[in-house]
Amino acid sequence: MPDPKPDAELEPSFLAKRYRAVRAASMTLADPLSDEDCALQSMPDASPAKWHLAHTSWYFETFVLASVIGDYTAFHRDFAFLFNSYYNSVGEQYSRPHRGLLSRPSRAQVVDYREHVDRAMLALLEGRALDAATRSVILLGTHHEQQHQELLLTDLKHLFGQNPTGPTYRESAARPVERRRAPTPVAFVPFDGGLHEIGCDGPGFTFDNEGPRHRIHLEPFALAHRPVTNREYLAFIEAGGYRDPTPWLADGWAKVQEEGWEAPLYWQRRGDTWETLTLGGVREIDLDTPVTHVSHFEADAYATWAEARLPTEAEWEVAATGREVAGNFVENGALHPLPASSRDGAPTQLFGDVWEWTRSAYSPYPGFKPPEGALGEYNGKFMSGQMVLRGGSCVSPADHLRASYRNFFYPDARWQFSGIRLARDRAAS
């Protein structure tokens, strides 16, 4: 079990309230979907919406209910196998690339499963004194479910992207935060070099991969005050960025040729106009919002072409620490963006627009040790071959984001709401 942290988030009343809110938000996100929408899987990296709804229930059933309640009766004997994601120490798992073949259980049965788990969980939270370690597992489960809320939407968008009719998830669906005026020309905000501290050890929820807190030496650097926009990225395309191997990493250029990339995922040209698929349907590209659905390879190539580079994750965290977090919240059945923070002479839009690629490989911090037991498989075993993203996107729950949050994907991944913020080296003053 994860080490318990003595803070208000583990208070039983707060935890029960948070559990209810997170579980309800998942169902709100699934409300607009048909049974067919919930069952399909568009690629091995994605999962059906139905699977996300079931797997997050499997977490609470497996790591809380079955562990704490001696006579707990599982909802269905097959679900432990069908909805285990990657926890080898818990048992075998159904093949991830084939989750879309599971026509049974039905969506209705998955909803019944959720309700079964919720009744037991709320009875536990409201009727029994739980130790701090168990409450920590429950708190982790709510953040785990928020990760799957984001995945539900990104996976659904990829599924809709395979449909030539450009389906609409919801007219008011989340999109990068709208601006009242065009963004100002990009400016680079300077930061001092020297010893800095990053990572978390204190109170408040964090995933295990966000610690331990440690010192790191940075050279002086500068960070762009906002993310790269569609207009700026379009200039890269029109300059032949996808035809010239010069700015590309070798693996990136090989992927461009292998996959035939010509623009970010979901972009399509209609005459002289570029359109893109959004969760609100197909729309003309808003040139002044952050470019999204680019891989690490594309982000790095653009940065090189722009005579800049991607920031390291330590640089990004140093710049973001203390900034206001923006993101999305669910109200009246719809996702609404929160405004991004803005300060004179400080980076903005750091949270809640697009996940920002860094040039840092996903690896353990000095002194990192995964928790004992099955939950030690949560993050640590994936620290190979992936790149770190920071900041959160327009489909990230607002209270799920913080400066130390480390997301990670393989460098060719494009289906997440991933974008670009530039950095530059600068001479010491």
Please tell me about this protein's structure:
- It is a single chain.
- The chain has 429 residues and is of the alpha+beta class.
- It has 2 domains: 8-161; 188-425, paralog of FGE (formylglycine-generating enzyme).
- The protein contains 10 helices and 14 strands.
- The protein has helices at residues 12-30, 35-39, 49-68, 79-82, 107-127, 132-161, 230-238, 250-259, 296-305, 313-320; strands at residues 188-191, 194-198, 214-218, 221-224, 267-270, 273-278, 281-284, 328-331, 334-337, 355-361, 387-390, 407-409, 418-419, 423-425.
- A hairpin with a 2-residue loop joins strand 8 (328-331) and strand 9 (334-337).
- The protein is globular and about 65 Å long.
Count of helical stretches: 10
Q: N- to C-terminal separation?
A: 47 Å
Structural class: alpha+beta
Helix fraction, binned, reads 25-40%
CATH class of the largest domain: Alpha Beta
What name is given to the CATH topology of the largest domain?
A: paralog of FGE (formylglycine-generating enzyme)
* Shape by Cα distribution: globular
How many domains in all? 2
Largest sheet: 4 strands, mixed
Strands, total number: 14
Helix-strand string: HHHHHHEEEEHHEEEHHEEEEEEE
Strand content: 5-15%
CATH architecture of the largest domain: Alpha-Beta Complex
What's the mean pLDDT score?
Answer: 90
